[in-house]
Amino acid sequence: MAEPRTSGQVRLRHEGDVAVITLDNPPVNSSTDAVRRGILSALADIDAAHTRAVVLTGAGRNLMAGADLRELEHAPTEPTLPQVTAALEACPVPVIAVVRGHTLGGGLELALACDVRLATADATLGMPEVTVGIIPGAGGTQRLPRAIGLPAALDMIVSGKPVNATRARELGLVDQLLSATDTDAQYAEVLGFARGYSGGKRPLSARTVEPADRAALEFQAQKLVTRARGLPAAAVAADVVLAAGELSFADGIAQERAQFLTLRGSDAAQALRYLFFAERAEPFVPQQPVQPRALERIAVIGAGTMGSGIALCVLNAGYRVDLLELNPAALDAGVNRIRNELEGDVSRQRLSVEQCDARLARLAPSQDIQVVADADLVIEAIIEDLGAKQSLFSTLADLVPRDTLLATNTSYLDIDTIAAAIPHPERVLGLHFFSPAHRMSLLEVVRSNSTSEETLCAALAFAGRLKKKAIVVANAWGFVGNRLYAAYRRQCEFMLEEGASPEQIDAAIEAYGFAMGPFKVADMSGLDIAWRMRQQTADSRHLRRYVGIPDLICEAGRLGRKTGKGYYRYDDNRPVVDPDVAGIIAGYRADQGIEPKAFSAGDIQQRAVLALINEALLLLGEGVCQRPEDIDIALAHGYGFPRWRGGPIFIARQMEADALNAALDRLVAVSGKGQERGDATLITLDAKTAQE
């Protein structure tokens, strides 16, 4: 065995007549110019006359987890990844890729440029480039259809969803799965395969694309693009993949590269990269290093829709869960909701029967509050009533040890008030889940005036195990998410009063990229909930502009989907424009002496986004957020804000200072009485914008 030769972050080792190229760029072997140079140098150093095969593998857990996204902020540098994939194909001896861990994006493109692909049983393969605003740019859109066919390639590339090793083998993306699980044994198995391989060169570029029905492909592509909800790169990816069935390989990769270079500098790609890095930054850094308490047993109090959803989420993360509910019928209903969800995952092949049974075995339903004594964390999810929550927390404080964490799932109530009479209030915090709790990724970790850093760190570790996107927020009405949404909804109601229709506003917001417009969301949630809250705050109504249209809608018995009518009429559970609503709105405007004005989709979108920007600045000014980026994370993960637009903070940073201030002034003027203005100096503008 020859000593390894090192070039940058790539090692070349000779194992007899097998050359082994190992990528070693911790932590994930991402593609950098040093790695690319290293691969080319290693290939150049191989003596083809004395080499049977080349093995391309990765040190650590992955072959290559994709590109270093920071490189996309700058002009491409040579050698480019297409130059590397071309060199792998041109290598005169067969190249065998060892796919392990997360082999994504550029990593999978490397593997596709090899002649044979072996994979570990736990490998994940995918091309998620559309999720960061680009498309594969090193031949992936042309080689993948030649490997697995156009329908499967369309699905992988346009959706960006990865496949596991077993599915990759079924598709023909992987030639063989490795049977060994130990690293050394896998290495020996790969060398044995390479020494016995006699299949010669098998470049995918030389294959033809299997014919497929064009109409069916276009229908499939349109469905995938629709599911992408306006993600700009999705439509481009579909077109380029479909071109593989019509163009030569050379023409196909030329088109792919041109589109890749166009997309990489686009606004959408910049926004998606911004979110990518913001989501991976630490949500909270304690002033002093702390060792958070390990949590193993969780108690959830309240078996309603939210409580059972939280319990399911916690079960899915591997915890033991006590689900408490005094009402036996409500407890049975909550357990049935959990069981039905898990069994549904089994039927959808997301879980095995054994996994389902194991999760249910960790669930302990109970009507006995005493069981909380064994919990490391108690999460209450009872009715949104301050007195009820205070009483429950007082009871809990008498039952649990002093270091048991006590969390409330309140959406709006004052956590300091809830914890006021609790011994050791440093262990009290908010864990605000979003419904449905087992599906929505956002989790607001709410810090009261007394919450300790140890408690916060334990809660964040818990959130990580739940695979939630956690943001740390201060104790304030509506915290971050609901406060932002209230400002956005209020601005939409202002436009409704001024002349826009519910369906026009919803259409404009959905065209902007939101999953659903505000009035469709209101109908789905139930209009009576907000109606009751407005009635409770009627005494302070005079302090700011108030739109009475939602009250009139409710007074007409239109409470949303559950009554078959709200802002829309629901036929077969689908929203239909109802002339009666237009009549209610017109009558209100006439009574108030309001002359309706015309709105364009752009007018509506600008007002709604400016309302979010302004409220974000107010939240920053009040210290409710730890980081400005948390606002954009909250909206993207909890409220359907289009990821490819970044979020209100990202958008504001792209604006020139004078333009941003003028826009905020216009918003305040049109919003009327009680509208506060945010301070634009609280955010730093994008460096390029600031120089203009």
From TrEMBL:
Residues 478-570 form the 3-hydroxyacyl-CoA dehydrogenase C-terminal domain. Pathway: Lipid metabolism; fatty acid beta-oxidation. Keywords: Fatty acid metabolism, Isomerase, Lipid degradation, Lipid metabolism, Lyase, Multifunctional enzyme, NAD, Oxidoreductase, Peroxisome. The keyword Lyase applies. Residues 298-475 form the 3-hydroxyacyl-CoA dehydrogenase NAD binding domain. Pfam families: 3HCDH, 3HCDH_N, ECH_1. It comes from the Bacteria. One of its GO terms (molecular function) is (3S)-3-hydroxyacyl-CoA dehydrogenase (NAD+) activity. It catalyses: a (3S)-3-hydroxyacyl-CoA + NAD(+) = a 3-oxoacyl-CoA + NADH + H(+). Transmembrane segments: none annotated. The keyword Membrane does not apply. GO terms for biological process: fatty acid metabolic process; lipid catabolic process. It is found in: Peroxisome. InterPro entries: 3-OHacyl-CoA_DH_NAD-bd (IPR006176), 3HC_DH_C (IPR006108), 6-PGluconate_DH-like_C_sf (IPR008927), ClpP/crotonase-like_dom_sf (IPR029045), Enoyl-CoA_hyd/isom_CS (IPR018376), Enoyl-CoA_hydra/iso (IPR001753), NAD(P)-bd_dom_sf (IPR036291). Its main location: other. In the N-terminal section; belongs to the enoyl-CoA hydratase/isomerase family. Belongs to the enoyl-CoA hydratase/isomerase family. This is 3-hydroxyacyl-CoA dehydrogenase. It comes from Marinobacterium nitratireducens.
